[in-house]
Amino acid sequence: MYRHSAIILFGYGSFGRQLYKNLCDAGHHVRVVTGLDEYVERGKQEQIDITKINIKRNDDLLSLNINPEKDLLYCAMNKTANNLFLVLSLRTLYPKANIISISNSFENTRKLKYAGVDSVIDLYEATARRTAHMLTKPAVTKALDEIIYNHNDLKMAEITLTKETFMDGKNVSEIPFKKLGVILIAIIDKELGHELIFTDHRIDHKLDAGDVLVVVGKHESLAKLQKKMQEG
């Protein structure tokens, strides 16, 4: 069975530390790489394998002696711009490497994929999965709680549809939720006795006045959606 010889985790801020903990708990050997002295000091105090480099220097990246056929590379710095730059550099140096990066928006996910990342830990989409699990399975993963809710401004809201709203009488597929900056998690359907229905791409649910939408988004996106709903 194929196994990674090591996981190299770039970043030891709020995201990186939580990923480090969960990866180690899962039994992986993790090497941490950072560009900040404060994280190096913290890592040394916690007795972890941590190295300081300048991520913008290819020579420093090469000094890590990455094995692109064995090592799994995680880009988990707090600043998306740094992760994007790092993905571009790593993909250039190691065309066959397996690169994973975190993202906190649809647009950043798109940019990272263009840069050559193999997989994205989309914190925005993960919020939707976490919320659905919370409603169906009380045992939610601690990592998503820590990474998403403690370190981001994502919120969950319930929005009741009125007859005046532009959504009344339309199917879910007709509503540009992504463009509005929110994720639809579930619908509390008035016609079905207020039954909670989780959204599923296979079912194009018709929305009616009285339905309640359970959505997740940043504060400003939710405020804009509420305003648009009031405008009809």
Blueprint of the fold:
Blueprint: E1 7-10, H1 14-25, E2 30-34, H2 37-45, E3 50-52, H3 58-62, E4 72-75, H4 80-93, E5 98-103, H5 106-115, E6 119-122, H6 123-136, H7 142-149, E7 154-160, E8 182-189, E9 195-198, E10 212-218, H8 219-231
Parallel strand pairs: 1-2, 1-4, 2-3, 4-5, 5-6
Antiparallel strand pairs: 7-10, 8-9, 8-10
Explain this structure.
With 232 residues, this protein is α/β, with parallel strands linked by helices. It has two domains: 7-123, 3-Layer(aba) Sandwich (Rossmann fold), CATH 3.40.50.720; 153-231, Regulator of K+ conductance, C-terminal domain (Alpha-Beta Plaits, 2-Layer Sandwich), CATH 3.30.70.1450. Helix content is 37%, strand content 22%. The chain contains eight helices and ten strands. The chain has helices at 14-25, 37-45, 58-62, 80-93, 106-115, 123-136, 142-149, 219-231; strands at residues 7-10, 30-34, 50-52, 72-75, 98-103, 119-122, 154-160, 182-189, 195-198, 212-218. It has a six-stranded parallel sheet with strand order 3-2-1-4-5-6, with helices on both faces. Strands 7-10-8-9 form a four-stranded antiparallel sheet. Helix 4 (80-93) runs parallel beside helix 5. Residues 130-149 have low confidence and may be disordered.
